[in-house]
Amino acid sequence: MKKRYALAALPLALMQQCDPACDPMATPTASYTAWTVNWDNVARCESGGNWSHGPVTNSAGTFSGGLMIGHRWWNVHNGQEFAAYPYQATKTEQIIVAERIVDARGGGYAGADRGWQCVD
Question: Would you place residue 85 in the very low, low, confident or very high pLDDT band (cuts 50, 70, 90)?
């Protein structure tokens, strides 16, 4: 069984990354998870890799930061503990909130696919 780490408690360099095959039977929880997505790739697709990308508004809402996290989702998943908006947060803080969103949507790549179009 793979170890799970609290994302908020570890520096970015120590967070685990795993591909979808590494632990397919694991059940994600709100507080502990394996890092499931290559967030740098998502950011390259969503914002050109600009983790400070300013707000963009369309018919679905307002989004910002490297992962283009919706401001409503930022608030729902406690992003305001880091900054008022995603583009004002660090890369690590944006990833922590993104992982919370993924966990809430079922975890792993399936959960990320429901939150971002750019998950590979």
Answer: very high
pLDDT, tens only, 106-118? 766 555 655 666 6
CA atoms within 13 A on the CB side of 91: 14
Closest CA to 99 of 43, 29, 22, 48: 29
Q: Would you state the CATH architecture of domain 7-113?
A: Orthogonal Bundle (1.10)
Distance (Å, rounded) from C-alpha 117 to C-alpha 7? 23
Q: What does each C-alpha distance from 20 to 61, 108, 113 come to in angstroms?
A: 30, 7, 12
- Candidate from 1-10, 44-53, 61-70, 91-100 with smallest mean pLDDT: 1-10
Quick check: 105 and 36 in contact, CB under 8 A?
no
What order do you get walking across the sheet with 56-58 strand by strand?
56-58, 61-64, 69-70
